[in-house]
Design a protein that fits this description.
Layout: H1 7-15, E1 19-23, H2 27-40, E2 44-47, H3 50-56, H4 58-70, E3 76-83, H5 86-95, E4 99-102, H6 109-124, E5 129-134, H7 157-167, E6 171-174, H8 191-200, E7 208-210, H9 218-225, E8 229-234, H10 236-256, H11 259-280
Parallel strand pairs: 1-2, 1-8, 2-3, 3-4, 4-5, 5-6, 6-7, 7-8
């Protein structure tokens, strides 16, 4: 069923766990994410968004994700990820998306506010919630790189408070040392900065979003959950699981021209990888970093 509203997001923030936002590129990844949500019995967000549209086509991927969510027993949000295009945002809202991310992080502060305010205005007309981003997150959404986070590009707590107040945004993606994709450099979050951002946007409560969580050490992840992160985006882990499963299956699939076995292997690997992530995002174990 479609997961509307921010209640699940705020419940996650209060309980010290997070909703996973899993990026979907095609039928098999949508199916794998949906199966993981059904198995775990936890709310999950399918992120069928701007970058994957380049592969699957916007209309096709929108319909796949919305159909899967609407016909599943699991609570599934359908989210537009990393969009810089108000027309694209409007198209997804009109199709029935439950949330959208407007990405003005590349813009000057005032222009980011203006773009985000307009996205919020449009989303309110459709009963959807809005995520925005403040600070520059290095790396590539679709391909792992050797990007390194720079302090100068990280989210400023005082700006975060001003941004949230000016835009009315429902969730805020932050840059605190996180990087898109896997990287050879160890990723260490600036948890002190994250705590300050959380404190700055607590009244009213605005849940925080962590992009680039693939491969993040569990202690770093739990530290983020303890500091207001209520949505965690995962992409590279699912991509790697899909590719490794199809590589292993390819020889036997080729011998019988059994393309279905290849697709099924990728789908099931995505499901299993997503289930592992859901487990890591469960309420903090006793003794976790707080």
């Amino acid at each position: 069923m479609l997961l509307h509203g921010t209640e699940a997001l705020k419940e996650a923030a209060a309980a010290g766990h997070a909703l996973p936002g899993f990026v979907a590129y095609n039928l098999e990844t949508v199916q794998g994410i949906t199966a993981a949500a059904e198995t775990a019995g936890r709310p999950v967000i399918i992120q069928a968004g701007s970058s994957p549209f380049k592969h699957a086509g916007r209309e096709a991927l929108m319909r796949l994700a919305l159909h899967a969510a609407g016909h599943s027993a699991a609570r599934l949000g359908v989210h537009l990820d990393h969009s810089r295009d108000l027309d694209e945002i409007t198209a997804c809202l009109e199709a029935g998306y439950t949330s959208v991310m407007v990405d003005g992080s590349h813009l000057p502060f005032a222009e980011n506010i203006a773009l985000t305010k307009e996205a919020v205005r449009r989303a309110r007309d459709h009963g959807a919630w809005v995520e925005a981003e403040l600070g520059a997150l290095p790396g590539d959404e679709d391909v792992s790189t050797n990007a390194v986070a720079h302090t100068a590009a990280m989210t400023d707590p005082q700006q975060a408070a001003e941004f949230v107040a000016a835009t009315g945004v429902d969730a805020l993606a932050v840059a605190v040392g996180n990087v898109h994709g896997f990287t050879q450099h160890p990723v260490r979050l600036d948890l002190e900065r994250l705590a300050a951002i959380h404190e700055a946007v607590t009244v009213p409560l605005v849940p925080l979003v962590l992009h680039g969580a693939s491969g993040l050490p569990v202690e770093e992840l739990h530290g983020a959950l303890a500091r207001g992160v209520a949505k965690v985006n995962v992409n590279a882990e699912l991509r790697r699981a899909y590719l490794e499963a199809t590589r292993e299956t390819l020889p036997s699939a080729l011998s019988g021209s059994n393309v279905v076995s290849l697709w099924a292997a990728g789908r099931d690997a995505v499901r299993d990888a997503a289930l592992e992530v859901i487990g890591r995002l469960s309420p903090r174990a006793e003794g976790a970093d707080a």
